[in-house]
Amino acid sequence: MAIENCSRCGVQLVVPQDAQTIRCAVCQAITRVHSYYPLAQARESATRFTSGLISMVSSNISGMTGSVSSSSYPVPGYGGYYAQPPIRPVLQLPLPSMHGRKRALLCGVSYRGKSYKIKGSINDVKCMRYFLVEKFGFPNDSILMLTEDETNPLKIPTKENIRLALRWLVQGCQPGDSLVFHFSGHGSKQLDYDMDEVDGFDETLCPLDYETRGMIVDDEINATIVRPLPQGATLHAIIDACYSQTVLDLPFVCRMNREGYYTWEDQTRSPYKGTSGGLAFCISACDDNQTSVDTTFQFCRHWQEMLQLVP
């Protein structure tokens, strides 16, 4: 396996052996896979050195004459000449710093003002934050919350903000890191067009603006936070949404009955959707063919009874 950055959005892609191109699950762009044979690698290194040298010389000349552009100098490449490719700007989101080995993304979407609004989603992620900080020692500044209560527009749970936050969650991930992704909101499913689902449907998460911007598909979630996970790193996902059992597209599903007996189902399809050596777990509220609803009285009474049993 090799790692390539998407030519359009820059997300890391895990490339199967001998693949010449790969499609990005985030932006759907096709990226050409670079050759890693020694000769090609040396050729690319020489090209990068030449490109940097010409760029440096051009900058110095530009400082003296104010009129020279590096793009006017062709850079020698294999089989011909080409101009130095432009550098894509990287969108910087003011997110919490990557603190130590623990990081969490908590998304609570209530869909206020809609007929399908949810009452408890924001409270869910607030409770999860308290749980992670008080019980598992997560630093406050290592937890990113996206809810409709936030005043920062970049922390509202829109599709684009959730996408950026998912990339932040695994950015710079190293062995020993512990990552948490919690989503509380609506989930759905749609027809699977790339034939990698056992049941023929892709599972999805519904951001706040999904009616206009669309849903986040399990293929994208897997490519963003599962496949880049390196050996020694662990991801725990807690998904409180409808149709959410395989929303991370993990290779295996555990089914357990009320007596505690369980079996593992192989969900492996092509292409490979496992990690890059790390461990990924998903605890889902529903099976892929089930829905969930808000509860009030029964839920509160159940927890009151449970708390009375605690010494």
From TrEMBL:
> Cellular component GO terms, alphabetically?
cytoplasm
Q: Name one GO biological process term.
A: proteolysis
InterPro entries given in the database record = Metacaspase (IPR050452), Pept_C14_caspase (IPR011600), Znf_LSD1 (IPR005735)
Q: Where is the Zinc finger LSD1-type domain?
A: 6-30
State the superkingdom: Eukaryota
Which GO molecular-function terms appear in the entry? cysteine-type endopeptidase activity
Tell me which residues make up the Peptidase C14 caspase domain.
Answer: 101-295
Q: Which residues constitute the signal peptide according to the record?
A: none
Q: Which NCBIfam families match?
A: LSD1
> What does the sequence similarity comment in the record state about its family?
Belongs to the peptidase C14B family.
Instruction: Supply the name of the protein.
Output: METACASPASE-3
